[in-house]
Each structure stands twice: as structure tokens, then as C-alpha cells.
Amino acid sequence: MNQDRFNRVIQEMEREGISQMVVTNPHSIHYLTGHYEEPYERFWAFYLNRDGRHSLIANRLFTLDEVFGTEILWYEDGQDGPELLNTCIDHTKPLGVDGGMAARFLLRLMELNAAPSYCLSSACMDRVRAHKDQEEQEKMRRASRINDAAMAEFKKLIRPGVTEREIAGRLQEIYQSLGGEKLSFSPSVAFGGNAACGHHEPDDTVLKKGDCVLLDVGCVADGYCSDMTRTFFFGEASPERRRVYETVLRAQEAAEAAVRPGVPLREIDKVARDVISQAGYGEYFTHRLGHFIGTEVHEKGDVSPSSDLVAEPGMIFSIEPGIYLPDDVGVRIEDLVLVTEEGAEILNFYPKELQIVEAE
């Protein structure tokens, strides 16, 4: 068990006035124990109590050995995991549950009268996970370095006659050749007007001269995710498309320059949004500026007009403004940013100036 992380979670429980809670998010359990288990339909839970009584509820099929300072309660298929958890719970006090607990398990706890009341306790884990420690920061740097190297290889796949699906099909093998483990999310490979369609799924669209090529990609390395977007042009870029690209680049760089401790995240979003709006494309920037990231590609917290968070050292999030002109072009540029004590560290180094890939 990582004692420092565990202590910080207990402090958050105290802050929230929660004496006991159940964590079921596999990534949060991994964060505390160092063990990742994908439970699928099975029950997998970590019971935490501020009095020091902690228990893991695990299926016999799981590959867990031991977790220092924590008892493991085992059950087999056909047995009742929530009922086993119920033996640990203090039935006289409210029980915190995370937002990832399946309704069938929560309802079963209610049937068992496990607690007099229930509350959402996800924030206790989310706030701690949002601040990456030194070990996590280094793993995030490595994952992003792999992503930078991979993007250089992906650019070589842009050639006459290629389809979105063909490029997408090559990404995992390239990541693995560079030290990545797997894709961190289903990649977006989009040509031309497809790039204006949000999270477009790669299809059999064939690349043609003048198309933009949007690549929103990432891998997992050492259990941590990378995420980066670059937009290329194939053969040529019209004056209007160049203007779109340069506007997004200015917005992205201005937002990155605004990142430092104490700055509200909604203000960072506004910096980028103002650049795009002043250029006349405000209605075509249709999403938040960024999201938090770590062992999950989208973690709790975002950089958006509605965010109530303030930048604090250790936070890592994306900065990814975009302009999407329907049926014409989509441009997005994305880096990951680590908030430091003095300002910010950009984790991606792959070039961002407009790049035109030769058509012949």
C-alpha cells in the first residue's frame, strides 16, 4: 500500500466528515494498493475506515497476493460479495460510496441495511488523485515521450490512397515498438470534413489532396496514459484552413502560457476561447478546453467555463482547443500540461507549427 496516498485519502474523509467509505473504481484501488484488477461483472471493493480497519473484498479468481496492513476477504463465484462487505461496515454510521459502484451492488447493501444512510464519497479519492506525486509525474512524462515519438511515425502513414481505418490499425503496433503497452483510448483518425465531427470513428474514407488529417492518440506506459492531438494537411492547405490552424495554435499556446498555481481553470479556458472568438470562430469551438488525466485518460476535473477548480501543483490536464467547420475542416492541437510550483511544464514536444505532408 502507498501509505502517503492512503493518508491523504483519510485526510479527505476527515474533511468531508466521512468515517467509512467503499471504493470500487479499479483505478482508485490500484492507486492505493499498487494492484490493478479488471473485475468485469464481479464485485471488487476496498473498505476504508478512519479508525484503521480496512478490508479488500476480492474474488478468488483475482491475482491479488497481499496488501500491507489490509485484510483480504475472499469470496467465490456464486457467493455474495456485498454481503461479505457488510460484515466490515459499522452499521451505526453513514457509508460513503463512490460514483462507480454498480447499482446492483449498492441496492444489495441497502437490502442488507448496511448503513443508516449513504453519501457520495468520490471526491475523497478524486481530489487526491488529481495531484500527481513525483513518481506519477515521471511516469506521465515517459508516456508523453512515447507519444511524441509515435506521432513522428504516424505522420509517415499519411500517404496517397490510405484510409482512416488503415492508419488507425497501425497505431498499437507502433506504440508497442516504442515501449507503450496499449492504446489509452480509441484513437481518432479523421480526414477532411470528418475531422469536424467531434470524436469521429475511423472509417474507410480515403485521403485526398487538401484534406486535414486529425490524429487524437495516446498510449499507456507504466499504467499511465498519454493523450495528444496534432493536425496535418495533405498536399496543400487553403488560405482559410491555414487561418483556422493558426488561430487554434495561438489559442493553444496562449492557454498554456496562462497555466500557473492559483489560476482558476475556467480562466484558462477563457484565454483560449477569447482568441478563437476574436478571430470569428467562437461558435465552432464546441467543447471544453481540457480534461484531467492519469491512470485513466479522463479523470475527474476539467478545464471548462463551468470548472470551479484552481490550478495547483501536481495537476495534469490537457489543453486542446479546436475549430470545427462542418463538412470542411477540423483542427485540434493538444498537449498535456503539468502544473508546477512556479508555472507549468508542457509534457509534449512534438512540433505544433502547420505541417503539410507531400501528396506525391
Overview of the molecule:
This protein has helices at 3-16, 26-33, 81-86, 103-111, 122-129, 134-156, 164-177, 239-258, 265-278, and strands spanning 20-23, 45-49, 55-59, 71-75, 95-97, 118-120, 182-183, 188-191, 212-217, 219-221, 224-225, 228-234, 290-292, 299-303, 316-319, 322-325, 329-332, 335-339, 344-346, 356-357. By secondary structure, the protein is of the alpha+beta class. The strands form six sheets. A six-stranded mixed sheet has the order 4-3-2-1-5-6. A four-stranded mixed sheet has the order 8-9-12-20, with helices on one face. It has a three-stranded antiparallel sheet with strand order 7-10-11. A hairpin with a 2-residue loop joins β10 (219-221) and β11. The longest helix has 23 residues, at 134-156. The termini are far apart. The model has no long low-confidence stretch (mean pLDDT 96).
Provide key terms for this protein.
360 residues; alpha+beta; Creatine Amidinohydrolase, Chain A, domain 1; Creatine Amidinohydrolase; 2 domains; 6-stranded mixed β-sheet; 4-stranded mixed β-sheet; 9 helices; 32% helix; 22% strand; elongated
What's the alpha carbon Rg, rounded to whole Å?
23 Å
Biggest sheet overview: 6 strands, mixed
- Give the helix level as a range of percent: 25-40%
Listing every helix as H and every strand as E from the N terminus to the C terminus, the arrangement reads HEHEEEHEHEHHHEEEEEEHHEEEEEEEE
